[in-house]
């Protein structure tokens, strides 16, 4: 199957890469590898095309695409399971999130507007009016990771189309098949094919050719901080947004509703722990830590680990065995450093069982780096001041959760936590497609969330009358 769409045509490539099911190891498909010449051809075609869609047209296409995904929800969820190893429950939730996001994109496509600004506000007394508008930035290169193979793609392509841009999409070589299905759905919904280019392939060949093109108007990337820095140093002055992950903190104070906090902390196990905004470390007041850890252990013990395609499975696999080995090594290092293994720690191939650790030192890699696996490490703290200091003591700052009933604690957290968002009485995994999403420090630059992504993907222009 050809998986590259260039200038409105599905094109053949000389080489392909296998896509394997992380649970069984079997080949479930293959993806074309676009070479440097095909990437250059794709960008020239994208730059040459001038869309003529109205805001209403774009909105209708996105609504129709959402309807198409909904009609094929089982097919999309099955595709996600097969290529990523995510549990079917997680895959179903991902399809639902993509539907909600596209429908918000359809609404926001009609709300892109500027303002009228009088200029007689200075001593010069110019009696003019400046009128602003938001125009598409041009050709947006969207580079997406393996986790959440549908929603990560929709999160970038949806706002870009809503804003009237042309898009060159490169999904992860590990999970490209769902992206191909999504692109076909958009075309079936009436999107002019030249507006959306799909380039599958490896980071070393296809990805590098993409980011070295001088025909890009914007790059939107989700992935590791290391790759984000490489892209930023390569593209130079090009417009860009980066969502680069996190080691998301959940802070549980001594007045917290502990059962609710434990349920939120169990978000560490969702999508097999492979979520940039997921719970990566839990900072619990020492006065309630014992009770909290037992509640969290019960949450972990109740989860079913197994075949991702089984409807009863709660936790599927990581993306591959190498990823699971990294998690296993960090857990073992944590135990050697003094952490207490409360539950889990087991690995078989790419599968890693939900793991709870208590009394985790705050300076070890398990909690200082982004550990992409189903781990819930508990760090005991004396109070909010210490929790804030530990939370801020890493190079990440995406989102943080805070369980408390004290308004003063909420205010302090909002003032002092170095993160993009503070979520009260819920985990850092909270999301909604109509609110801003993004971080500080090595968690990225710019904001997603449909309306805010559209602002990133448009250029503000001014006419003075």
Automatic annotation (TrEMBL):
Query: Any idea where the Aldehyde dehydrogenase domain is?
Result: 10-462
Keyword set includes Oxidoreductase: yes
InterPro entries hit by this protein: Ald_DH/histidinol_DH, Ald_DH_C, Ald_DH_N, Aldehyde_DH_dom, ALDH-related_metabolic_enz
The molecular function terms in GO held by this entry are: lactaldehyde dehydrogenase (NAD+) activity
Keywords of the record: Oxidoreductase
Family per record: Belongs to the aldehyde dehydrogenase family.
Name the UniProt record assigns to this protein: NAD-dependent aldehyde dehydrogenase
């Amino acid at each position: 199957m050809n998986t590259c769409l260039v200038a409105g045509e599905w094109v053949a490539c000389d080489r392909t890469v296998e896509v394997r099911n992380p649970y069984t190891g079997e080949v479930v498909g293959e993806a074309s590898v676009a070479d440097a010449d095909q990437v250059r051809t794709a960008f020239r075609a994208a730059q040459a095309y001038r869309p003529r869609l109205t805001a209403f047209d774009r909105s209708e296409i996105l609504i129709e695409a959402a309807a198409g995904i909904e009609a094929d929800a089982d097919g999309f969820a099955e595709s996600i399971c097969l290529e990523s190893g995510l549990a079917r429950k997680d895959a179903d939730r991902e399809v639902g999130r993509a539907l909600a996001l596209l429908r918000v994109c359809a609404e926001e496509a009609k709300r892109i507007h500027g303002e009228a600004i009088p200029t007689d506000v200075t001593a010069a007394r110019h009696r003019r009016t400046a009128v602003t508008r938001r125009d598409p930035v041009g050709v947006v290169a969207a580079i997406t990771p393996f986790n959440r193979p549908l929603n990560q793609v929709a999160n970038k392509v949806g706002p870009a189309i809503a804003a009237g841009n042309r898009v060159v999409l490169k999904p992860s070589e590990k999970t490209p098949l769902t992206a191909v299905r999504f692109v076909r759905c958009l075309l079936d919904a009436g999107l002019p094919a030249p507006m959306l280019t799909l380039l599958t392939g490896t980071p070393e060949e296809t990805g590098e050719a993409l980011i070295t093109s001088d025909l890009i108007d914007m790059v939107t990337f989700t992935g590791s901080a290391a790759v984000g820095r490489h892209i930023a140093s390569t593209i130079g002055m090009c417009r860009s947004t980066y969502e680069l992950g996190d080691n998301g903190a959940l802070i549980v104070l001594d007045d917290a509703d502990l059962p609710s906090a434990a349920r939120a902390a169990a978000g560490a196990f969702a999508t097999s722990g492979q979520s940039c905004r997921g719970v990566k470390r839990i900072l619990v007041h020492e006065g309630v830590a014992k009770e909290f850890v037992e509640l969290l252990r019960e949450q972990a013990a109740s989860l079913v680990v197994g075949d991702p395609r089984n409807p009863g499975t709660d936790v599927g696999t990581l993306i591959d065995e190498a990823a699971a080995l990294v998690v296993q090594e960090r857990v073992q290092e944590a135990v050697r450093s003094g952490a207490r293994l409360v539950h889990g720690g087991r690995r078989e191939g790419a599968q890693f069982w939900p793991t709870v650790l208590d009394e985790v030192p705050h300076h070890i890699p398990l909690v200082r780096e982004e550990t992409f696996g189903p781990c819930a490490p508990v760090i005991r703290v004396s109070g909010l001041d210490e929790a804030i200091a530990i939370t801020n003591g890493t190079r990440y700052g995406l989102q943080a959760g805070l369980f408390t009933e004290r308004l003063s604690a909420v205010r302090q957290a909002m003032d002092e936590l170095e993160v993009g968002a503070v979520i009260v009485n819920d985990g850092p995994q909270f999301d909604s497609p109509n609110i801003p999403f993004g971080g500080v420090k090595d968690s990225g630059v710019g904001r997603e969330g449909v309306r805010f992504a559209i602002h990133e993907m448009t250029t503000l222009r001014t006419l003075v009358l």
